[in-house]
Amino acid sequence: MKNLEHALTYVENSQTELIQLIKDLCAIPSFSHCEKKKAEYIRDWFSKIGAEALIDEKFNVILPVNTEGKDQLTVFMAHIDTVFPDETGFECVEKDGWLCAPGVGDDTTNVAELMLIAKYIIEHQLECPKGCLIVFNSCEEGLGNLEGSRYLMNSYADRIKEFYSFDGGYKALVTKAVGSTRYEVTLKTEGGHSYGAFGNRNAIAVASSLISSLYDYKVPARGKSTYNVGMIQGGTSVNTIAQEVKFLFEYRSDDRTDLDEMKQFFDAMISAYRKMGVEIDVQVLGERPCMGNVDPNEMKQVIDHVSSVIEAHTKKVPALRSGSTDCNICFAYGVAGCCFGGYEGIGAHTREEKVDISSLETGMKIVMHFILDYFN
After folding, report:
1. Which residue, of 7, 167, 278, 350, is most buried by count of CB atoms within 10 Å of its CB?
2. Domain spans of the chain?
3. What's the pTM value of the predicted model, to 2 decimals?
4. Does domain 4-177+290-372 have CATH number 3.30.1330.30?
5. Spelled out in words, what is the top-level CATH class assigned to the domain 179-288?
6. DSSP secondary structure, 150-184, as one string
């Protein structure tokens, strides 16, 4: 990119606009599967600067750049959904050098940075020889099950050559996919009055026993593997033997064989409790794929490229780690890419999340520099 210095000066001069855009985006509710308002805001924002962004069936906002007839496209993506189901959005406040709001970092800051970088590209009529898609995608979080990135990959099929998700900070790159399966498990027993029907099976007690059995499992050691019960609900009253209880369970790993083994154990436990006469219904709520067959040479080129840009702006080499991100989908398709972001912060997935304001300029310069490497 010949005019990188000019672009980096734009970043320096855009920090006030960036902070205001982050605040505006935080105020728009955008829970997974409920991203319509934020998608429309982003589309209309681009319309005001003379760019036509499209909203697809999954509420991904897509800005195609020189894609006609191209089959070596690069995806630059940031997700617009948050983990919190609040219907009124959040007030983002500045305090002691931080921007504070649920979702302010994950992934609002990266969305805002990508929007302003796209604005620079549009206003300066920069050309992307191989073509790219600038995407603000839906359904990355939790039970969104990566539907936005799945739909995008399916829509463009084998036309996508590289895939980058801007999510998180710039001190580490996610270069390996953590796959997972998530379940809702419902147990039913006869229940009854706590005194008159004492001795009948209690669904809560049975569920507790099943959960304890699931937690007795020793995870495989090929990769990093984990499991978790995240929610439990059921029962009627203090003097009622519970007839029904539900809990949410997941296991995850960055190794496909480990995932298969954990599934076998889970299925075996469910089968064992059914043989005890317990009525159990299992619903799969979401599946995220593990690493596919990505060309190692292409991955090395990706890692070297991103790392060199980050090092140029921070004088530090980023760490490499596994993670569950939108890149799970490209990796499953065998497409090279990685996930990193344009800020540093703390408290992701908590209501106390905050972004270090002093990291924004460096982070946005990294993302700008990296994207413009694909432009003339």
Report:
1. 167
2. 4-177+290-372, 179-288
3. 0.92
4. no
5. alpha beta
6. HHHHHHHGGGEEEEEEE-S-SSEEEEEE-EEEEEE
